[in-house]
Amino acid sequence: MSKNILELHDVSMIYGPVKALQNITLSVQQGEWLAIMGSSGSGKTTMMNIVGCMNKATHGVVVLDGEKISRLNAKDLTAIRRDKIGLIFQQFHLISYLTAVENVMIAQYYHSLADEKEALEALERVGLGHRARHLPRQLSGGEQQRLCIARALINHPKLILADEPTGNLDEANQETVMNIFHQLHAQGSTIIVVTHSPEVAAHARRVVHLEYGRMIRDEVNVECPAA
Amino acid sequence: MKPQKMYFKIILSSLVRRRSRMVVALLAVAVGATVFLGMGAVYYDIPRQMGREFRSYGANMILVSSGADSNLSLAEASRAEALIPPEKLVGATPFRYETMYYNLQGLTVVGTDMQSARKTSPYWQVQGEWPSAENQLLLGTDISENARLYAGSFVELEIVPPRGRKFKKEFQITGVIRSGGVEDGFVLMPLGAVENLLGQPGRASVIEMSIAADSDELTLLAEKIQAEAPGVTPRLVKRIMNSEATVLSKLQVLVYLVTAVVLFLTMICVGTTMMTVVMERRQEIGLKKAIGAENKSIIGEFLGEGLVLAGVGGLLGIGSGYFFAQAVSMSVFGRGVSLPFFLIALTLAASLVVTVLASLLPVTRATDVEPSLVLRGE
């Protein structure tokens, strides 16, 4: 049986009168592909912030790769993000003045040492080898998202967190990105995708539904290709 | 790739590819450095430049006899002059005061070196010509008006030598002197003429010296003469010295103030630009933090950008500051300005310090950015 890479025990996030997340208890196994679904305001992003070590839950315990992260300080959370998490964003968030390969290398630089050869290989894996010296503005939306994926993977994270990864892509690019996710999953990567799209969620083996900050359903998608 | 290489790649890419934004800060640093170097060069050069200007107000040191004899030996005076660096000595003029008579009325006759007097007393105004022969003289304007004697006329003076009988000699008045001082009541003739008429050659009542130096240097020179030329006593002309010191200190305070104001304005301009840059790049900062950058990395990158700006702006400012200083010096003093190396280094250091100080607050704000904002799409 695979070990749990992520555990949330009775996690809540309360901002004054607003209860963004309430009593979430969830565990994710290593190698699992989980989709978190919900409409706007359901608490998806709050949950991703907590799991991605960018915010701390006001209540409850979060364990990532065996380490209790719920009470770590900002510096330690930064180290966890750097070492264990690969982030993929809907808006791509690439650094405009760095080329594609430099955008990958900067993640290596903050982690350990920038290695241009390894960064170029990562770009090759997502089909961007020929665009390595281009600036983000010279890339299409799909290419920018693939670049974002290459950056997220470069430090071999324990957990890949993707926030609406196809939200800004057309159908063809959406398929390309989901194919990359399938490859990663096949190689044993743990993936959590936050989405409001049933099509994207349908690729995951397991889907968690949030509504008004509460987890209302946790189901296994037996028909999905990743199952 | 070495971390340092990647670090420079990040900050240089940011500056080069976002140059339109950073050009304002670059210009601010360049202008600040221009004024700093320009004013610094003028400040450094003011004593030298003004010292030369002040020499037109006359002697600032006089030598008198230190012995019982009221006259001093010119040979002794020469030894004292030799103690003054030649490049600082504008001129040294002997004056020998004697009495001669015109229509039974005593006149103070001053024997002097006419060529040298023109250097040490450039403010003397002579109507007519300077004497060039021993039978020629200059008449003070007061005597000229009282006796109705003018340039071109002749005057007969009665001379009473220390030994021998009194006699009369006719002189040609080549010019009338107006100084606004005691010289207006004197008769001036070549020192050689006085020596021939009254004997005792190689002696003078006083030597007036004009030295291009500030009050501290003058005091040191006076002490040196006192110690090494025992036959003469140096006296500083306090009136000239104090005027020089007052004007110089006021000018230097003015330069200080202008430089301080410009540096302050530079700091505000750089600080404002850096603050705008930080605000514009909040998402980039959030992203960097989200992918693992620590606060010290964020601070290092922004300060690095600031330091490159300061370096480039400082070098531009040094180039333009040199021309600025030359222009100021030429228009005010009519001479070029010298630029010591330490001033160039100081300008570069000031650019760096001002930029770092101006960047401190914006950089602190950068570390306050939360990584989670990248997920909120802000």
Overview of the molecule:
The complex is a heterodimer of chains A (227) and B (378). Chain A has seven helices and ten strands. Chain A has 227 residues and is of the alpha/beta class. Chain A has one domain: Rossmann fold, CATH 3.40.50.300. In chain A, strand 1 and strand 2 form a beta hairpin. The longest helix of chain A is centred in the C-terminal third of the chain and has 16 residues. Chain A is globular. Chain B has two domains: 181 residues, no CATH class; 177 residues, no CATH class. In chain B, strand 3 and strand 4 form a beta hairpin. By secondary structure, chain B is α+β, with helices and mostly antiparallel strands. The mean pLDDT of chain B is 86. Classes of the chains: A alpha/beta (227), B alpha+beta (378). At the A-B interface, helix 1, helix 2 and helix 3 of A face helix 1, helix 9 and helix 12 of B.
Can you tag this structure with a few keywords?
heterodimer; A: 227 residues; alpha/beta; Rossmann fold; six-stranded mixed beta sheet; four-stranded antiparallel beta sheet; 7 helices; B: 378 residues; alpha+beta; 2 domains; two-stranded antiparallel ribbon
- Find the CATH superfamily of chain A: P-loop containing nucleotide triphosphate hydrolases
The number of strands of chain B is 12
Element-by-element helix/strand order of chain A: EEEHEEHEHHHEHEHEE
C-alpha termini separation of chain A: 16 Å
Largest interface: A-B, 36 and 32 residues
Distance between the termini of chain B: 33 Å
Number of domains of chain B: 2
Structural class of chain B: alpha+beta
What multimeric state do the chains show? Answer: heterodimer
Strand order of the largest sheet of chain A: 6-7-8-3-9-10
Number of helices of chain A: 7
The gyration radius over C-alpha positions of chain B equals 34 Å
Question: Would you give the CATH topology of chain A?
Answer: Rossmann fold
What is the CATH class designation of chain A? Answer: Alpha Beta
List the uncertain runs of chain B.
none
Q: What portion of residues of chain B belong to β-strands? A: 15-25%
* Count of separate structural domains of chain A: 1
**In CATH terms, what is the architecture of chain A?**
3-Layer(aba) Sandwich
Q: Give the % helix of chain A.
A: 25-40%
Strand content of chain A: 25-35%
